[in-house]
Amino acid sequence: MSADVVSSEPETPASRLQSPLETLRARMQDRSAVIGIIGLGYVGLPLALRFSELGHAIVGFDVDATKVADLNAKGGYVRYQGQTRESVRFHSRFEATTDFARAGECDALILCVPTPLGKSHDPDIGYILDAAASIRPHLRPGQVIALESTTYPGTTEEDMLPALAREDLTVGEDVFVVYSPEREDPGNAKYGIRQIPKVISGVTPACLQAAEALYGGAVDTLVPVSSTRAAEMTKLLENIHRAVNIGLVNEMKTVADRMGLDIFEVVRAAATKPFGFTPFYPGPGVGGHCIPVDPFYLTWKAREYGLHTRFIELAGEINRYMPEYIVEKLMDALNGARKALNGARVLVLGVAFKKNIDDMRESPSVRVVELIAEKGGDVAYADPHVPTLTLEEGKGASLTAQPFDAAAIAGYDAVVIATDHDAFDYEMIAREAKLIVDTRGRYPASQARVTRA
Q1: Own/partner long-range contacts of 268-273 (Cβ < 8 Å, ≥24 apart)
Q2: Beta strands 414-417 and 436-438: pairing type?
Q3: Are 69 and 62 in contact (CB under 8 A)?
Q4: What is the pLDDT of residues 93-114, one digit of tens each?
């Protein structure tokens, strides 16, 4: 599929009256367009809900038949809004399916599929290519195909476009291919899809117009850029900015700790400067799909241009080391209480990658649990959002979430605050715990029985 291929479809009086782009615009404007969402996860489901709020019929595609059946049975899903979990229902017709032949019913097809790393930390865009191959036979004039998955510059035009290619459809005339990176923040009650400005791009100028038609009613502010490659790089810059700054403050934490300084006090003081400083806070590492993964998409692509992204890779090394640093601090704290980690009862509070959600992807808290187990600790965890936890093969059996009431807290030799969910009673924990290793700055550094990590 390329912009210079001439369509083999015969021209009809109707097509002369209204072009595929005009048809798409009209259907988006009167809310009669059917929106197809491919990948019903943390990105796809909120996007489906937003278009459903506008009155569009939604067809959700996923390869997980169990998830599809569950969504169809419930007519909605559970999402996180600030400190609360809530069940939401779609406002207009929604149907989930594993049948990609139904892609032909949709006026828009939005790909929200995973982009993980391979075993050698190389990008794996297999989910994108599989989705493209699945919808390719069912494409028709008047459709817009949008990729939202985070990926390296060039993916949309160099990889996805050939996977969609059909000689009877011309990009920019019959169908429209766009890239618009997701900016979803699970658990953020202040910024939803509508409030977050959306970067959009297209393979051709007409494709960019299709992107404007697709997202214009759903998002308050659109940010057009010159190319899909620029949009892809924008998303990577956003996430690499966070990864590098988190790596910096995590390294500063180890330096401040050695100097006997409270890094959280230092960051809060620096944040009072009204210009030139953005506060980032240390923790047990970085988690989620974006921050631990996305920088490697750029480092891999940069090698194609003969470049070595040392700064980005150094930040990754620092962040990956943080779980080991925390366990070292735990061992020091136990030693100070004349106990060894081997055989000690340790409770890790919070294993999701961020507070108040259940997302376990790349969570550094899980690595903390694994390291404690590897060193002989009798480790358990508590998390109101994660009922069970499966460790990597050879690093311990599957665990079940434990109670975190006063009696339970008092029974452990040490408590590690790894993910600071609001559901935890921090006053009670401070009162009942024999020893606390605090990775999130919930307590003053001077508080008795508290070790900052």
Answers
A1: none
A2: parallel
A3: no
A4: 999 999 999 999 999 999 999 9
User: DSSP labels for 265-312?
Assistant: HHHHHHTT-SSS-------S---TTTTTTHHHHHHHHHHTTT---HHH
**SS3 category, 314:** helix
| 299 contact partners, CB below 8 Å, separation of at least 6 | 309, 312, 313
Q: pLDDT tens for residues 223-256?
A: 999 999 999 999 999 999 999 999 999 999 999 9
- 290 in active site: yes
Paired tokens of 268: 């809060």
* Per-residue model confidence as pLDDT tens digits over 286-302: 988 788 888 889 999 99
Distances (CA, A) of 94 to 84, 105, 119, 181, 257: 24, 13, 36, 23, 52
Helix, strand or coil, per DSSP, at residue 123: strand
62: its two tokens: 């996923």
Across the strands, what pairs with 35?
A: 58, 108
Burial class of residue 383 (count of CB atoms within 10 Å of its CB; 0-12, 13-18, 19+): buried
Percentage helix, strand, coil for the chain under 3-state DSSP, each rounded to 5: 40, 15, 45
Active-site residue (options: 106, 112, 207, 290): 290
Mean pLDDT of 398-419: 96
Q: Are 58 and 137 in contact (CB under 8 A)?
A: no
**C-alpha distances in Å from residue 70, one per residue of 112, 235, 357, 381, 386:** 19, 31, 20, 28, 19
Cβ 75 vs Cβ 145: under 8 Å:
no
Report the alpha-carbon distance of residue 52 to residue 6 in Å, rounded: 35
Helix (H, G, I), strand (E, B) or coil at 321: helix
Q: Cβ neighbours of residue 215 under 8 Å, at least 6 residues apart?
A: 180, 198, 200, 222
What is the distance between the alpha carbons of residues 262 and 355, in angstroms, rounded to a whole number? 22
Distance of CA 113 to the CA centre of its chain: 11
In this prediction, residues 58-81 reach a mean pLDDT of 92
Q: Sketch out the chain's domains with CATH numbers.
A: 13-226 (3.40.50.720), 243-452 (3.40.50.720)
DSSP letter for each residue of 431-449:
HH-S-EEESS--S-TTSTT
Q: Are 252 and 282 in contact (CB under 8 A)?
A: yes
- Copy the structure tokens of residue 451: 């070790």
